[in-house]
Amino acid sequence: MSVVVDEPRTHVMRIRLDEPRVRNAISQLMALELEEAIARCSADRDLKVLVITGADPAFCSGVDLRDISAGRRVSMRFFDLLAEFNKPIIGAINGVAATGGFELALACHLRIGSSCTEFVDKHAQLGMVAGGGMSARLARLVGLGNALEISLTGRTIDASEACNIGLLNHVVEHDRLDETALDLAEAIATVDGELCSTILGLYRRNSELPLAEALQAERAVADEWRGRHDRSGALENFKALKEEKS
Predict the structure, then answer these.
(1) CA angle 47, 48, 51 (to 5 degrees)
(2) How many CB atoms lie within 10 A of CB 50?
(3) Mean pLDDT of 46-65
(4) How far is it, in rounded angstroms, from Cα 140 to Cα 123?
(5) In three state form, how does the secondary structure of the chain look?
(6) 34 Ramachandran zone, left/alpha/beta (phi>0; psi -120 to 50)
(7) Which tens digit of pLDDT belongs to each residue from 17-32?
(8) Long-range contacts for 198-205 (Cβ within 8 Å, ≥24 apart)?
(9) What is the tens place of the pLDDT at every residue in 143-171?
(10) 233: pLDDT confidence band, cut at 50, 70 and 90?
């Protein structure tokens, strides 16, 4: 198997790309296994958070060029499945995320890196146009100017710069990366699953709306949520939080 799925924490599942000899390049087989793994996680009712990572020394070096050279089509459907995934996705970016691997990292909602993390987009240098979400997601994170420079020059972005421009949420020591990502996933998993999905959906939709429309959309969802849920639970949670701080 080139993709391994496990459940390292309660309500947390992890997908690990496991072809370290080729720096976890996405082959025809791996793409199909990724589709199956994502679909399996999506169907798991107990899942609250998904973590995606790679087997050291790389996160993912992109599409396997051996398949392209041999004329074998590598399906990109797993990108669509990730775009439709209604639970938070954390990327533990344990090494280089190159080209299609960069796009896989961008498909995650949160990204944790280490001193080994690097991002590089070589689509232009390979004479290709990105098809896994690069142009749709990168500028939203780092701004149009930064995104164009990254994609047109093919230069490498190290962990420090990636954190500064918004590609990474945190950078930790490499030997703490897995634990940190799982701790973050576990913290998120304490939130009610339906509420977490609702908030995720709001951020997704509102990121594409003008501010006035986004504010109206948020208010509508908040009112609908309050109409369906007993507010006594929220009040109890508020009291508990106050007691923790005191």
Answers:
(1) 85
(2) 25
(3) 97
(4) 19
(5) CCEEEEEEECCEEEEEECCHHHCCCECHHHHHHHHHHHHHHHHCCCCCEEEEEECCCEEECCECHHHHHCCCCCCCHHHHHHHHCCCCEEEEECCEEECHHHHHHHCCCEEEEECCCEEECCCCCCCCCCCCCHHHHHHHHHCHHHHHHHHHHCCCEEHHHHHHHCCCCEEECHHHHHHHHHHHHHHHCCCCHHHHHHHHHHHHHHCCCCHHHHHHHHHHHHHHHHHHCCHHHHHHHHHHHHHHHC
(6) alpha
(7) 999 999 999 999 999 9
(8) 198/225, 200/86, 200/87, 200/88, 200/109, 201/86
(9) 999 999 999 999 999 999 999 999 999 99
(10) low
**Locus of tokens 């107990």:** 46
* Amino acid letter for position 155: R
Structure token pair of residue 35: 């589709």
- Confirm if 90 and 107 have CB atoms less than 8 A apart: no
pTM of the model: 0.93
> How far, in Å, CA of 138 to CA of 228, rounded?
36
> Nearest CA to 88 among 213, 181, 218?
181
Mean pLDDT of the chain: 94
What six digits make up the tokens of 203?
A: 């951020």
- Torsion sign across C-alpha atoms 109, 23, 8, 187: negative
